[in-house]
Amino acid sequence: MTTIQTDVAIIGAGTAGLAAYRAVVAAGKRAVIIEGGPYGTTCARVGCMPSKLLIAAAEAAHEARHTSAFGVHIDGEIRIDGREVMARVRGERDRFVGFVVRSVENIPEADRIRGYATFVNDNELKIDDGTTVRAGRVVIATGSSPAVPPTFSVFGDRLIVNDDVFAWDDLPASVAVFGPGVIGLELGQALSRLGVRVRVFGKGGSVGPLTDPAIRAYAEQAFNQEFSLDTDARITDMQRDGDEAVISFVDAATGNTLTERFAYVLAATGRTPNVAKLGLANTSVTLDMRGVPVFDAETLQCGTAPIFLAGDANNILPLLHEAADEGRLAGENAATWPQVKAISRRAPLGVVFSDPQIAMVGKRHADLDEGTYVTGEVSFEDQGRSRVMLKHRGLMHVYADVESGRFLGAEWIGPRAENIAHLLAWSYQQGLTITEMLAMPFYHPVVEEGLRTALRDADARLVQARVKLAA
Questions:
Q1: What is the pTM of this model?
Q2: Where is the FAD/NAD(P)-binding domain (predicted)?
Q3: Among 1, 11, 249, 276, which residue has the fewest nearby CB atoms (within 10 Å)?
Q4: HSE-up (13 A, CA, CB side) for residue 194
């Protein structure tokens, strides 16, 4: 049996793991990176990139159907070839994965270990091929997997997760989606626009990551104009019948119980960290009720052990740029342990690539203390450039601190939210006030003028709030 000695062992060759490896090497220490599954990050293989490829096809189909309002008429039926759609999704996805695989394969072969690792103790790992890795420190960067409620097992092979969608050769006739979060909304709407009959079931009234009640209500109404979305569904029965999933539910509009059949059920019901098979019980770390190590969110260290938890495996902010930042810090701290430093996080930023897009920047509405902030609002329904493009569905709220006038955050649904979100994230990270933001240039005519309207509304409300406080 082989024994490998190293300064740092990194479990997982995804975004966080690769960043950790590079950080350790840059610090002049030896690192090995261990991966049992296929190379290629979650983002490239089954996440960000393939989902955007499917969304791009859906947008093309949607635009082709909605040209007549501009006086542009397309004669004949818009035909969607599901096999061609999925062939492009898989082909381009494989290109993106290839870039990642090549970057991993550029790592010296002696530093790459293929296999699944389990802890023997804090400093020793056993690989499933019998190899022993002895490391001064360990970084866990094993990512996460879709979490599926046990009750969904009734659907058998009619049950899928987002990973499975990108393996399809063709588009199915119908899909029931459970979970109107980021994944459920993006895939649900894309499939609907590609001609798939879609019904999305939610729980508790949530729509994506939104916490502002007014924005959430607007989003629910907007999406229901395209496909059926029940954000607090009452399911009365679920079963499998032949090659179909059969779901009975109470119709939100009529109160009647309906039964519908679907080719597939897509469980978009959250994700769980991939830590169950790591043998963490053999270490000195404390585990929470989910079996995930208790760790310091600032240093990513698990208790006092020489073990660090980074990326989706810690489930703080499951986003690619956050995973890269965490991986880098975990690698740096592992290289310098027992001296560790805290992470310097970027401005909170999230985007849902639906249409209209959803975005959140800075503090969420749910994080704000009543009476300490004002809300500036804009509707995109009458915003000039938005109406020109017939992309005028949307509502935005920006939040400002009453005392300082500083921009606190925003939640909204609207056109080109992915672009506006970056402007706001930069403003938040620089600590700008509403007044300072309004002093920035706004070209005409652009969608960003809608943001200016919201900022002006916030500015006026700040004046009112201060007058009220002074009275």
A1: 0.95
A2: 7-327
A3: 1
A4: 24
Quick one: pLDDT band at residue 88, thresholds 50, 70, 90?
very high
The fold adopted by the segment(s) 3-146+272-336 is FAD/NAD(P)-binding domain (3.50.50)
Q: What is the DSSP string of 388-403?
A: HTT----EEEEEEETT
Note the pLDDT tens digit of each residue in 249-261. Answer: 999 889 999 999 9
DSSP-derived secondary structure for 220-255 = HHHHHTTSEEETT-EEEEEEEETTEEEEEEE-TTT-
Question: What angle separates helix 15-26 from helix 320-336, to the nearest 10 degrees?
Answer: 30
DSSP summary character for residue 293: B
Interacting residues of 3 by C-beta distance below 8 A, sequence separation 6+: 131, 132, 133, 134
Q: Say how far apart CA 342 and CA 320 lie, in whole Å.
A: 19
- Which tens digits make up the pLDDT trace of 183-220? 999 999 999 999 999 999 999 999 999 999 999 999 99
Domain borders along the chain are 3-146+272-336, 150-270, 349-470
Mean pLDDT of 11-17: 96
Name the class of domain 150-270: alpha beta
Using CA atoms, how far apart are residues 221 and 172, in angstroms rounded to an integer? 26
Specify the amino acid at residue 388.
V
The answer to whether 433 touches 379, Cβ cutoff 8 Å, is no
> Residue 2: which residues within 8 A CB-CB, separation 6 or more?
130, 131, 132
